[in-house]
Amino acid sequence: MDDVFLIIVWTCITVATLIGIAAIILWSVSAKNMKKRREDMLNLQSGLKPGVQVLCANGIYGKVTAVDDDKVFVEIAAHTIVTVSRYAIQEIVE
Questions:
Q1: 20 burial type by CB count under 10 A (0-12 exposed, 13-18 middle, 19+ buried)
Q2: Prediction pTM value
Q3: What is the C-alpha to C-alpha distance for residues 79 and 92, in angstroms, rounded to an integer?
Q4: CB neighbour list of residue 47: distance below 8 Å, 6 or more residues apart
């Protein structure tokens, strides 16, 4: 009976250790991806200037006409300018 209890305890310790190692690996991979996304977003934000073609998060393409602190004015059609959040710009279209 004592040997069975010892086996169960060591099995639980082994499983907990493996789960802990897996959690550390997933956390480090996630942190690396978040850092890369943050850098990409900063590069995108610094590239916003009048005349640049952009894609908004809602799928609308347009040309930036002006940039304010947190607002971007995007021309989506002739004489049609919409104001969007700076953070709604998904990518700069080349």
A1: exposed
A2: 0.64
A3: 21
A4: 92
CA distance to 48, 62, 88, per residue, from 82 (Å): 15, 9, 12
pLDDT level of residue 2 (50, 70, 90 thresholds): confident
Instruction: Give the integer Cα–Cα distance in Å for 84 and 94.
Output: 20
Q: Determine the straight-line distance between the first and last CA of the chain, rounded to whole angstroms.
A: 72
**Residues 86, 70: contact at Cβ < 8 Å?**
yes
- For range 55-75, the mean pLDDT: 94
Checking 67-75 for CB contacts under 8 A at 24+ apart, the result is 72/48
| pLDDT at position 61 | 96
In whole angstroms, what is the distance from residue 63 CA to residue 81 CA?
A: 9
Encoding tokens for residue 13? 């310790």
